[in-house]
Sequence to fold (235 residues):
Amino acid sequence: MRVEVPAIELPKSSGVTATDRVFDALYDAVISVKLPPGTKVSEYELAKQLDVSRQPVRDAFFRLSSLGFLAIRPQRPTLITQISLRAIHDAVFTRTALEAECLRVALVVDKPRLIKDMQESIAAHKRAASGDAAGFHAIDEAFHELICKVSGHDHVWPLIRQQKAHLDRLRYLSLSEERRKYVIADHTKILDAIVDGTAAKAEQLLRGHITAVKDTLPAMMDLYPEYFEITSTRD
Fold:
């Protein structure tokens, strides 16, 4: 299977390396399933298409492999991996634990800022509800990242992001218009609980929101059976 990789636009910041640009482009292409599971990718062809040397592509491949996105095999084609069910369940567990704790701390550290940032994020969600999936997904990410930032533990979000790579592919596949409405409604309920001063309820709603993505698994596996790795799973 051959899929064109989206073109990389050079960022204005001179501090962004070629490896970072290649990695970001490929990461986004994998998450959005523009590069579906099973796609063969070549260092040489990507370097030529992206107009970079092979070294940045090789370095990006290594980083993607560390996330479980690439199967790099000697003398055999490099493939985009299937979506791991075990990785999804592990990511949901890790993400729930870390985000719930960040929310608890954020409510103590700066509740007014958390409310303001969430209000702005939900407004952005509503504006993007009928737009492209990539834009909506980015705003969804920002909503959860702000919880970590307001808590003062900015380092937590990169940890979560690294853990949830396979989970994000499932989230993207399931991002229908109906699902977008569900996301907006859930985020609004979390904010309402915070405004009402019911921290325990807000945490409960956040936990339920994060774990609910697993409910989309059966439908997505029916629609895209070839995308999923059917191995060991966890409840």
The two ends are 33 Å apart (CA to CA).
